[in-house]
Amino acid sequence: MQNDLLVNDNEGILEITFNRPERKNAISRNMFEELLGILEKNIYKSNLKALFLSGSGDAFSAGGDVKDMAANTENISLQEKTQNLRRIMEISKIIYNSPVPTVAVINGVAAGAGFALSLACDFRISTELGKFTTAFSKVGFSGDFGVSFFLSKIVGTSKAKELLFFSDVIDAKNAFQLGIINYLIESNNQQEFINEIKNKFKKLAPIAIKYIKKNIINFDTGNFEKYLEDEALYQMICSETEDHKNAVKAFVNKEKMKFQGK
Fold first, then answer.
1. Mind listing the pLDDT tens digit for each residue in 12-50?
2. At 118, phi and psi to the nearest 5?
3. Adjacency order of strands within the sheet including 170-171
């Protein structure tokens, strides 16, 4: 039986692959539940360096499985439906707040919830084959998994409204120009580029990266006083780590530094 999610942990790089290529990696309810469990189990492991999300075949993910939704005949209240959705939407929160860098690798369509999950990541890498659409309005939905939040942050509210209202498909070149993707690469160079990025992540200082991410998230709150207080605290926490002290010595002695996360 085919596994709908493939998981690989190699030297601290956690790779999760949507694996329903025959359905453009549409995500079923069970897949959302499984993905949430995988993230809750792994994202705070001390040896984790980065998280990579990708899709099998010629798609990242077409989003939530509409056929799965249509087949769902549960007779439950609006409150229960909302609670159930909110629980699996924790996936986006975990990815966004992750202490390690998160990357979506896109080689085809990223639509609906699939698009939203890619936006929750710190970085998006796409080949020239990438295609992006919010898709929600096409089926009478307003959006979930943080799509409006992430899209507004990346492209601004006016452009976000355009993309959300009309659900137009944009190609990789336009997505790159809008800042939706960080790296636009040729498909025949994809694996080589990803390996380079993975090696970069392995060399980063884990504690410093965790607090850099916290600083950026705090910036989004708009409370500058609280931001400065936290930024000062995080900087001093980093100053007491072995990684920082050893890195200073390595810099002075012109030696290579290997961070240990201590």
1. 999 999 999 999 999 999 999 999 999 999 999 989 999
2. -65, -35
3. 59-61, 109-111, 131-133, 170-171
- Nearest residue to 145 (alpha-carbon basis) of 118, 172, 127, 170: 118
- Strand (E) or helix (H) holding 42: helix 29-42
Residue 113 identity: A
Contacts of 140 (CB under 8 A, 6+ apart): none
Residue 227 · residue 219 · CB < 8 Å? yes
160 and 241 both lie in a single domain: no
Cα distances (angstroms) measured from residue 62 to each of 27, 87, 105, 245, 247: 8, 21, 14, 46, 44
SS3 181: coil
pLDDT in tens, 88-137: 989 999 999 999 999 999 999 999 999 999 999 999 999 999 999 999 88
- Clarify whether residues 153 and 223 are in a common domain: no
Domain tally, the chain:
2
d(CA 139, CA 7): 31
Residues 47 and 171 in one domain: yes
